[in-house]
Amino acid sequence: MDLRPLQNYIAGQWVDAEHSSLLPVENPSTGAIIGQVPLSTSAETHRAIEAAAGAFPGWSRTPVARRAQYLFALLELLRKSEEEIARSITEENGKSLTDARAEVKRLVENCEVACGMPVLQQGAKLIGASDGIDGEVLRLPIGVFGMIAPFNFPGMVPFWFLPYAIAAGNTYVLKPSEQTPLTMQRIARLIAQTNLPPGVFNLVHGDRTVGEALMDHPQVKGLSLVGSTRTCQAVAERCTRNRKRFQAMGGAKNHLVVMPDARVEEVVRNLLSSCFGCAGQRCMAASAIVAVGDATYDAVCQRLIEAARRVIVGNPLDPAVAEEPMLMGPVISAKALAFVHQMIDTGVREGAQLALDGRGVRVAGAEKGHFIGPTIFTGVKPGMAIHSTEIFGPVVVVLRAGSFDEAVSILNGHAYGNGASIYSQNGYWVRRFKLEVECGMIGVNVGIPAPVAHMPFGGMKASQFSQIKAQGRAVIDFFTEPKVITERYWTET
Asked: Domain for residue 330, yes or no?
C-alpha cells in the first residue's frame, strides 16, 4: 500500500501539496490506514483557482464539439476502469461492491450525457421578434467553478457537475472529501490521460480551508456542494455575500408510503436495498416508512423485520461475501457510528419500540470496522427526534397513518423534501401523491426515486438551497449565462 501523501493536480501537473497537516485515510471496514490526504492551504487553493482562471479564455473559445471530444476520451477510460474505480470506492467508503458498481455506472452515465453538450448548450432564436428585428439567446460559459464533494458518493456526485461545467466551456477546481479522496485521485489520473488543456481541471485535497478559499476567491463564479443541511445553509449564505452562484444540496429524510393495496412482498424486497444499501448513507435512502391502515402497518413491520434479519453485514472486500446481492458494509467512521448509537438511545428514550437492534455486530477479521446492523423502530410518532433527524445510517422508523391524507400530512410536515415514494396500484392515490407531496423527487413503486442522468436531481425545502438542480440539461443553466441579443439591419445604400 502506497501511503505517500496524495498529490494535488494543478495546471496540468501533479504537485506535492502545500499543506498544514496530513490526515489518514481509513478503510472503514478494517480500520486500516490506506492513504494520507494533505490538508491544503488557502494559498495552494488560490494557485489552482488562478490556473483555472488563466485557462478559461482559451478553453471558452474552444468549439463545443472539440470540448466534448475530451469527454468522449474520458468516457472510454472510465469504462475500461469501472471495476477498479468500484473497488476503490468500496475500500475507502465501505459500501458493497454491488452498490459501488452501481455508483460507477451512474458516474459514467453523467459523462455520457455531458458529451451531448453541442445540443445541451444550444440557445434559441426568434426571427421577426418585431418589424425587421430578430431576437436571440446565447448560453455562454462564465468562468471558474468549484465543488466540495461528499464522502458517500466519492465518484458519482462530482460527475453531477464536473463534466457539464467543462463541456460548457468553464474551468474547474474540485475538492474531494478528505474522508474518501482516493477515488477522485484515481479518476483525475484518467482525466490527465485525455490531455485536457492545463488548468481546465484542477484537484485540491483538503478540509474546510479549501472550501472557504473557493467560496471567497473573487475569480470563482460558482460553487456546488452536497452535504448536511447546516453546512449547505452556511455555504449558501457565504456565497450570497460574495455574489457567487451556488448549488447546495442538503440533508434528507426520505419517506416511503405503503397503501393498503400495495403488494407487500414486493414492497419489502424493494425496501431492503432502499433502507440498508450503502449502510443508509445516501441522500436517497429510505429512512421513514409510513404504512396506511392497521393491517398494512402490521404486515409491513412483521415482514420488514424478518427480511432485515437476513441482511448480511460484513467486509465488502471479503471474498466470502463480496458478491452477495444484499450485503451491508460499515458506516464511514467511528464518529458516525457513535452518532447512530446516540440516536438509537434517543429513540428508546422517546418511547419508540426498538423492534430490531443492529448494535453489537461483530465481523470476523474486521474487528476494527465501524459496523452496525439493520435497525428498525416501530411505534414512531411524527416529531420524535428519530423521525425529524437525518441519522445517515441503517436506522429505519415505521409510522402508522390512518389515511392517505394523514400520510401526506406527515411527509409535508417534515423539514426535508428530498425524495418520497408511494407503493400502490391505484392511479388515483398515485396521481394525488405526485401532485401534493412536497418533495423534489417522487417515486411510484420504487424505493429509490433517483432520476437518470438526463433528468434533474434535487430536492425541496431544507434539502435544497438553490433553484437549479444537479445533472442533465437542468444543470446547464447553472454553468452558463444567457445573453439576449436584439438585432436588426438596414438596407445598404
From this structure: yes
**Nearest partner of 44 among 206, 216, 222, judged by Cα:** 206
- List of long-range contacts for 375-380, beta carbons under 8 Å, 24+ apart: 375/340, 375/344, 376/301, 376/304, 376/305, 376/308, 377/347, 377/352, 377/353, 378/301, 378/352, 378/353, 379/351, 379/352, 379/353, 380/288, 380/347, 380/352
411: nearest Cα among 379, 439, 391: 439
Contact between residue 377 and residue 359 where contact means Cβ atoms under 8 Å apart: no
Three-state secondary-structure class, residue 43:
helix
Residues 320 and 221 in one domain: no
In a domain, 1, yes or no: no
The pLDDT of residue 129 is 93
pLDDT of residue 178: 98
Number of H helices, E strands in the chain: 16, 23
pLDDT at position 463:
97
Domain count across the chain: 2
Residue 196: domain span? 8-250+465-485
Scored b (16 or more CB within 10 A) or e, 313-330 reads bbbbbbeebbebebbbbb
CATH number at residue 224: 3.40.605.10
Model-level pTM greater than 0.90?
A: yes
Catalytic residue positions, numbered: 283
Which residues of the chain fall below pLDDT 70? 1-2
- Mark whether 364 and 327 lie in a shared domain: yes
Contact 18, 186 (CB under 8 A): no
Residue 264 shares a structural domain with residue 327: yes
Q: Residue 449 domain-assigned?
A: no
Partnered with residue 419 across adjacent β-strands are 441
Verify that 239 and 288 share a domain, yes or no.
no
Rg (CA), the chain: 24
* CATH code for the domain of 411: 3.40.309.10
The DSSP bridge pattern shows strands 480-488 and 133-141 to be antiparallel
pLDDT, tens digit, 9 for 90 and up, residues 321-371: 999 989 999 999 999 999 999 999 999 999 999 999 999 999 999 999 999
CA dihedral of 435, 436, 442, 444, whole degrees rounded to 10:
-80
In a domain, 335, yes or no: yes
The pLDDT of residue 1 is 61
Same domain, 471 and 332: no
